[in-house]
User: Which sequence fits this backbone?
């Protein structure tokens, strides 16, 4: 029942904007978590489906509380290293990078951000995630196309009983559309093709995927052994550029026609 997003970052002083900053401290993270704890619902629980940043932020709080670990460290040790080595990681607002030797990596610039007053490069684009220290449940990951693919492969293989870290039943739950209401397209975390879909016109009803605000996307169709990882940069220099909405479906159609295995 939580709304899709809220500009909680506007509650914080401008002194947090310039790196290195105090973003991500325990008190700041707890303050933002508490904002969500007191957020009004927009629908009864279970009554509708909205892809919500707020829900994923709370998921990070849950992971930290149960594990007793920083989210970045938990993900590094339990997910990223076993599945993708050093190709997926968080970048903290303090300038620390996990893993640390990735600090010399080159990063594509994203938006000329009015709130932070600079072109963003090597720092999380999402403002709430920036306040949370660059490490959040809804945003903040950096990586290569190969690194993203390695994560996706785990869902595919685990749903067939061959996962490294995911149980088969959980993997299947994550990639299967929930059928509680006819109009729902979401799984647990992932999305599935709708009509029309950013995956194009060919991906099957077994397909699953996800879109990122900055222009990233993943679409997977296990039926034809096809995975498309697209890491574009549609917010550079402005988030007002929405031409990717037309570009992405056409690209997926071309790739499907060329590479899908019948």
Assistant:
């Amino acid at each position: 029942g939580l709304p899709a997003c809220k500009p909680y970052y506007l509650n914080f002083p401008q002194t947090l904007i310039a790196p290195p900053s105090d973003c991500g401290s325990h008190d700041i993270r707890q303050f933002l978590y508490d904002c969500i704890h007191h957020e009004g619902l927009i629908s009864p629980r279970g009554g509708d489906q909205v892809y919500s940043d707020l829900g994923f932020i709370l998921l990070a709080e849950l992971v930290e509380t149960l594990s007793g670990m920083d989210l970045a460290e938990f993900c590094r040790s339990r997910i990223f290293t076993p599945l993708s080595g050093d190709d997926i990681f968080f970048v903290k607002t303090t300038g620390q990078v996990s893993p640390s030797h990735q600090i010399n990596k080159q990063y594509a610039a994203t938006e000329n951000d009015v709130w932070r007053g600079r072109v963003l490069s090597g720092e999380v684009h999402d403002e709430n995630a920036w306040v949370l220290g660059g490490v959040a449940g809804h945003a903040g990951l950096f990586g290569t196309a190969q690194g993203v693919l390695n994560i996706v492969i785990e869902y595919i293989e685990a749903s067939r009983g061959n996962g490294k870290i995911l149980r088969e039943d959980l993997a299947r739950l994550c990639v299967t559309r929930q059928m509680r209401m006819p109009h729902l397209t979401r799984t647990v975390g992932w999305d599935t093709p709708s009509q029309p879909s950013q995956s194009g016109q060919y991906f099957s009803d077994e397909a699953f995927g996800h879109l990122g605000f900055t222009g990233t996307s993943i679409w997977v169709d296990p039926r034809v052994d096809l995975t498309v990882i697209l890491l574009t940069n549609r917010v550079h220099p402005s988030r007002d550029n929405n031409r990717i909405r037309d570009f992405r479906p056409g690209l997926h159609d071309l790739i499907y026609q060329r590479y899908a295995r019948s």
Q: What stands out?
A: The chain has a mean pLDDT of 92. Strands lie at 88-91, 97-98, 109-113, 118-121, 141-143, 208-211, 216-221, 226-231. The longest strand covers residues 216-221.
